[in-house]
Amino acid sequence: MQVYEGKAKKVIPLDDGKVIMEFKDDATAFDGKKKGQFRGKSWLNAQISAVLFKVLEERGVKTHFIGVAGDNRLIVERLKMYPIEVVVRNVVAGSLKKRLPLEEGTELKEPIVELYYKDDSRGDPMINHHHARVLGISEGEIREMERIALKVNEILREYFAERGVILVDFKLEFGKNERGEIILGDEISPDTCRFWDAETKKSLDKDVFRFDKGDLVKAYEELYERLAGTS
């Protein structure tokens, strides 16, 4: 049985068209140049992802989520993943502040959707529709992923706002299932999103590790408590 191991997860295929997604305590930043390990991070990312996948499913977004399979494991539908990441931005932060003449924290008039090619050796470069089509992804597939990403953004912005959290930006990955449907895969966690406290603008995500802002696990715990305590 082939096991895929990435920077933050292991993917263990099963025989029934399902996959075990096992989260790791490892953390990386800046294309793997910065590394760390944080006990309890894997459990928090698995549980937060489970909560958010359930929220999306309840509101009509199809995901690969099936259930929780252990403290740091989810069971999900097997997908053929697209080699791109879809990023949605609501607030200026991260690389966007380097590309636009806007201050960090500026709320955008409308969400920005970006595409990135998944390749660590190339630094996951930003691409456009033309590049994606050269990679074998049709215009219709690109548009569908962007449509779903904006729907996810609409649902989660409201969901987090009710819990005193700003959804700054986030990364999604998509795949096709055996029925040929494009559905949401991977994870939705503080590893793949930026979350700020609505009042203090304190980071509740991996930026705590990236920029040495404090205790990473405590930040993730605070986010999870807001979800678990009010969902």
TrEMBL record:
Q: Does the keyword Acetylation apply?
A: no
Q: Which residues form the SAICAR synthetase/ADE2 N-terminal domain?
A: 3-226
Broad enzyme group: ligase
Reactions that this protein is recorded to catalyse: 5-amino-1-(5-phospho-D-ribosyl)imidazole-4-carboxylate + L-aspartate + ATP = (2S)-2-[5-amino-1-(5-phospho-beta-D-ribosyl)imidazole-4-carboxamido]succinate + ADP + phosphate + 2 H(+)
Keyword annotations from UniProtKB, A to Z = ATP-binding, Ligase, Nucleotide-binding, Purine biosynthesis
**For this protein, what is any one GO molecular function term?**
phosphoribosylaminoimidazolesuccinocarboxamide synthase activity
Entry similarity comment: Belongs to the SAICAR synthetase family.
In its UniProt entry, what is this protein called?
Phosphoribosylaminoimidazole-succinocarboxamide synthase
Q: What is the lineage of its organism?
A: Archaea, Methanobacteriati, Methanobacteriota, Thermococci, Thermococcales
Q: What gene, per UniProt, encodes this protein? A: purC
